[in-house]
Structure formats: C-alpha cells, structure tokens
UniProtKB/TrEMBL annotation:
Protein name: Biotin/lipoyl-binding protein
Pfam families: HH_YBHG
Keywords from the UniProt entry: Coiled coil
Coiled coil: 62-96
UniProt keyword annotation of Coiled coil present: yes
Domain YbhG-like alpha-helical hairpin: 35-115
PANTHER family recorded: 36 KDA ANTIGEN (PTHR30438:SF1), 36 KDA ANTIGEN-RELATED (PTHR30438)
Length: 115
C-alpha cells in the first residue's frame, strides 16, 4: 500500500493517536483525536443556535395557535358587543319611530347597522 502524508484542516493538539506508523487504514477511519478548544466553542455555539431555533419553532407552533385563539375570542367578544349596541339602538329607534321622533330612513339605517 502506498504511504500517505496526512494533515488536518482543524487546529488543535493531538490527544490520542489511534494507529501506528505503517498500519493499514481504510477511508473514513479515525486515526487521531484532536483537542481543539476552538472547534468545541464552534460546536457549542452551533448547538446553542440549534436549541434556540428549536425553541422558537415550538413557540411559533404552540404560541401562535394559543395567540390566534385569544385573538379570535377577543374579536368575537367585540363583534357581540357591537351587535348588542346596534340591537339596542334599533330597539330605541323603533320605539320612538312610532311617535314620529325619527324618520323611517333613520330607522332603516339602524336596522341595517344591526343586521
């Protein structure tokens, strides 16, 4: 087998040599173990970024649903209040329309507002 010179792209101190000079190795086989504080810091940073993205996803999936439900309930409550107000206005206008205090068009407008 041909002799090959191996170099690492990563900076670090060799903490363990897993083969001896002259050993046969296969492609992808681990031959040394490096201690690289820089790589470990990059790994921890990548893990933190991943964990943050995962938390944001969870918040988006669950928070959005709960927030949407709260918003829909608030919108429903507002629509119900507007309907009650329109119904009250119409009832008042209906009672005074018979006495001639408002015109038929004003009564019709309050009915359209209610409906």
């Amino acid at each position: 087998a041909p002799e090959v010179i191996v170099a690492s792209k990563a900076k670090g101190r060799v903490v363990e040599r897993l083969i001896e000079r002259g050993d046969d190795v296969k492609s992808g086989q681990l031959i040394i173990q490096l201690d690289s504080p820089e790589l470990m810091a990059q790994l921890r940073s990548a893990q933190a970024t991943r964990d943050e993205a995962k938390a944001q996803l969870e918040l988006s999936l669950h928070g959005t649903r709960e927030e949407s439900i709260r918003n829909l309930r608030a919108n429903l409550a507002q629509a119900e209040a507007q309907y009650r107000n329109a119904q009250n206005d119409y009832n008042r206008n209906l009672s005074v329309a018979g006495k001639g205090y408002i015109s038929k068009s004003e009564l019709d407008a309050s009915r359209r507002s209610r409906d």
